[in-house]
Design goal:
Elements lengths: L3 E4 L7 E7 L6 H12 L3 E6 L11 E3 L2 E3 L3 E6 L4 E6 L6 H16 L1 E6 L15 E3 L4 H7 L4 E3 L8 H11 L1
Parallel strand pairs: 2-7, 2-8, 9-10
Antiparallel strand pairs: 1-3, 3-6, 4-5, 6-7
Helix pairs in contact: 2-4
């Protein structure tokens, strides 16, 4: 059984992957990917197979319509940017994340991966918003100098994006 429903191979020398997860904190990553999709008229280029990764309880109902989990790749042509928007898997997370990396490498020549996540904060809604970063490559920090971005010094259970970046670094 194929682990993806459809993949359109994009011939690129290199591309960049932005990963967003549905239903993350504040739907931040979902909204960022949806914004990029709309702002740059992306094209859907792939869909991963959901069988074996999601439970039946992953189906929700919105406006009387069943919403099934999905994992889609999109392409922004003039930016060499690949977007991935997905529900987080209920089962076999390492297999799922390796599948994302396999497809990104084999079909889209992804060079760098960026993940977007929301963060729960005790700050009131009237306070100035901050953008934090976590990285797995020291050179990335140097490229961020000059932007108003803070390093996140947090310890605890890693999010799925942390595992994705760890697996990518191990390759």
């Amino acid at each position: 059984m194929s682990r993806y429903k459809s993949i359109k191979e994009i011939r690129l020398e290199e591309s960049y992957l932005v990963v967003g997860w549905n239903k993350d904190t504040g739907k931040i990553s979902q909204k960022v990917v949806e914004f990029l999709n709309n702002a740059f008229s992306s094209e859907m280029i792939g869909e991963l197979e959901q069988k074996g990764f999601f439970s039946f309880s992953g189906v929700s109902v919105e406006d009387d319509i069943a919403q099934f989990p999905f994992s889609n790749f999109y392409y922004i042509r003039d930016k060499n940017l690949i977007l991935f928007l997905s529900d987080q898997p209920d089962y076999k997370p390492y297999e799922f994340l390796n599948l994302v990396l396999d497809v990104s490498e084999k079909y889209f020549s992804v060079k760098e991966i960026y993940t977007v996540n929301g963060l729960i904060s005790l700050s009131p809604h009237t306070s100035v918003r901050k953008i934090y970063t976590v990285f797995n490559d020291r050179d990335f920090l140097d490229r961020l100098r000059g932007y108003d971005i803070e390093l996140l010094t947090w310890e605890g259970t890693p999010a799925i994006s942390s595992y994705l970046l760890w697996l990518a670094k191990e390759r």
